[in-house]
Amino acid sequence: MKKLRIIYMGTPDFAVPSLQILVENNYDIAAVITAPDKPKGRGQKLSQSPVKEYALSVGLPVLQPSNLKDPEFQEELKSLNANLQIVVAFRMLPEAVWSMPEIGTFNLHASLLPQYRGAAPIHWAVMNGETETGLTTFFLKHEIDTGSIILQEKEPISPTDTTGEVYGRLMKKGAGLVLKTVKAIENEDYELIPQDENQELKHAPKLFKENTKLDWNEPAEKLYNYIRGLNPFPTAWAIINDKKYKIHQSSIVDANSNGEIGKIITDHKSYLHIQCNPGIIALEVIQPEGKKRMGIADFFRGNDI
């Protein structure tokens, strides 16, 4: 059995259960690396990351380097004498950092690699209408998200799931997979599997204003998947009669009908439908620019299209 001394790297809430399960199983966590505190809210008070908050609550040392290439930080990291590093929802590491420990550095990625490499794997799996996604632990190497696979676990996606719902399930399931991976490494009982490049790969790039806009020239089914895939964040948006609206929730009225693309179909009271190409989509929860989100009936009480 290999004696492990671990450095844990993570920042958002997604990374907290994986750290927590290691602490609760009495693993030796030499330090936690997380993002620097950031100003937040109206008062712009410095806010700690969820991982930092948890680490401090259980008495773990925390490092918050602004530059991972800083020689001082790397010297401090080296002095901790860890033989394994674990990365969950952190940023890209320079080779000098990920190659430092004797065993290596493994990452928990929220997809079944090699599919959905990139920054937003959960969003894109839902946006593309996938019926299944999952989690992968793999050892880091030069090219992002390409290292040899240690373990994988599948997770179904229902036709009504939002990214928020899938995120919550994977966050919990990911902690179990991290623990399983650490135990396999500790017992030296695992087989590394190279990623299969001989298949058509789907990617998960960062989400920007440009790739979250709805285009009525697309099928209603695709737009419905985009809307739930961008819920709750960053939220799909669309232009309706020259005004910008965030679209939080929708349903498909008809997947196959054809008509004037972008045509608005409404009673100005209880429903707002848009003709797509093909199909008709019902917008159910929307948010006019500068206003709060609201159901369609509430929207029509004080606004009109």
How would you sum up this structure, described in words?
- With 305 residues, the protein is an alpha/beta fold.
- The chain has two domains: 182 residues, Rossmann fold, CATH 3.40.50.170; 93 residues, Formyl transferase, C-terminal domain (Methionyl-tRNA Fmet Formyltransferase, Chain A, domain 2), CATH 3.10.25.
- The protein has eight helices and 17 strands.
- The protein has a seven-stranded mixed beta sheet. Strands 12, 13, 14, 15, 16 and 17 form a six-stranded antiparallel beta sheet that branches. A two-stranded antiparallel sheet has the order 3-4.
- It is elongated.
- The protein starts with a strand and ends with a helix.
Task: Compose a concise summary of this entry.
The protein is of the alpha/beta class.
Uncertain ranges: none
Q: Helices and strands, in N-to-C order?
A: EHEEEHEHEHEEHEEHEHEEEEEEH
Radius of gyration, rounded? Answer: 22 Å
Count of individual beta strands: 17
CATH class type of the largest domain: Alpha Beta
Strand fraction band?
A: 25-35%
Number of domains: 2
Q: What share of the residues lie within helices? A: 25-40%
The CATH homologous superfamily of the largest domain is termed Formyl transferase, N-terminal domain
Strand adjacency order, main sheet: 5-2-1-6-7-9-10
CATH architecture of the largest domain: 3-Layer(aba) Sandwich
